[in-house]
Structures are given as structure tokens and as C-alpha cells.
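quick one, 307 residues, struct below
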Amino acid sequence: MTRLRAFGVVETPERPGPGPMPEPLLRALELSIGRRVDGLLAGDHRSSLLGRGSELAQVRPYVPGDDVRLIDWNVTARTREPHVRVQLAERVLVTWVVLDRTPSMDFGTADRRKADVALGVALALGHAASVRGNRVGLVPFGGGSSVPLPPRQGRAGLVGLLVALGDESSGGGVASELRPALTALGAVARQRSLVAVVSDFRGPRDWCPQIVDLAGHHDVLAVEIRDPREDHLVDVGEVWFSDPESGARLRVDTGDAGLRSRFAEAAALERRSVADDLASARASHIVLSTEGDWLGDLAAHLGGKRR
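---
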């Protein structure tokens, strides 16, 4: 049985999709993203170009060809000579979504797969970023679209994002792993942007220099997706485990209490290392689970609150 949910995502038993995306939480996300937009476009990151905008750069005498709608009538009345307002051009914010589509993202033992949560995060951020007419771009890696989706403005950008995210059948990707994907993004992201890296951050942690470089020029948000079974083993007897990335298989006796304890300790240490690497790069970091209300957690994190 299949059905359509938020943003037209098709749900199946094998691919449950991101789940409900209530309008109030999406609005809260829009406000949080809006505050980031205001922060990135203010102060030292303000545009120095003259053009259409809301901030006054100067008032100068009118010359033939000027837009009469820009006449400053107060100055004109005082000087008895037509003057026009010249404003600073407002720069739109570009949001880049770096999306993990490697095989490990197909894992999920709770409400949905990690790939479903990642899809929901990408859709939610794309929706929130495009509401104000800002531009949204996509850099998938590990599978999916074969080329980056360049930033597009407003609803057109969101529609393009939806089309690209819905194409799960095509192979290839911008890169096979996170590091080259971040390198590719750094080469094209010239304007200061919001960069959301949505991944489980599994595999080689050779991406630290690229995260540091991006964080020096952009606002980086690292969204880590986890599944409960990746942190703790359940006693179900002897089972075979398969690594979706390498294909390696291993038989494990989950009835061994000592093994379960060592597994939990190793998993916690590995995840702390990821968190430390992201913190050292000065990236904002949030962990979302395949279990529970991931959208509420995301909105609360971006809103600066704890759930």
C-alpha cells in the first residue's frame, strides 16, 4: 500500500517517508531560518552594491532616467530640487543542503529509515529557506542525482529540490563520500550561505578540514541522523550483520552481555568523536533519531530551545 504525505512524498512500507510535518512546526522553522537569514545579511556581511533594497545608502539629486518612485519627497521639499533615494541592494541568502544518500542511510529499525529523516530535514529546510524568496541548492553524495542542483530562488528552488530528492532511482552522485562532496561545494559556494550537512557521519572521518574551511566562510549546520540500534544491541541470539557500505558480513552472538556492553561503549565513544570534530570546526550540531518527533527536535534546536 502506498500513500502521499507532506510535500507529495510517496510512502511505502519499505520507505515510510519523513512522516507528518505539521504546519505549526514548519512555521516555527521558517522563523528560525529567518533569524539566521537576518544575521547573515546584517553587519559585516551586508551588501555594498547599490540597487533595490530597504537600507538607505545616500540621497542624491535626480537625473533624467532615475525611477520616479525613488524620489525622496521630504528632501525634495526642503531643497526645492528633486532628490532620489539610493538604497543598498538586499542580498538573498543561499541555503545549500548537502545530503547523504550512501547505503548506510537505508538502515532503520524504529519509525523510519535514516534516509527518510534526512529527506524530511532537506524538505523542511528547503521550504523554510524558500519562503522569503531565498535560494536553495542541493549537493547529494553517495547516490541519487548525478549533478548538483544549483541554487534557485523561491518556490522554483523548492520545486527543483523536490524533483531531485524524489529521484532515488538514478545512480552516481556529486561524490561517493562526504569529503569530496564538501570540496565540490566549497568550489562553487562563493556567496556567504547557510550550509546544512545532513548525514549519519559514518565511515572515514577525513572531512574535518573541509568542514573547518566551510565554517570559516558560511554558517554550517550539521544534522546527524541516528538509529537506536546503532548505539545499543538487543538480545536476539546469534545474528548476521552486514555493512551496507563495504558488504562485509559478521556473525554476532547478541546474547553475550559483555559484548553488548562493549558495543555500547564503542558506539558512544565513536559518536563523541564525531561531535568533538564538529565542535572543533565550529559547526552547529544537532542529532536526530529515526524514533520520535525529529521535526520538533529540529525546530526546537534552531529556535534555541531544549526539548
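The first helix runs from residue 23 to 40.
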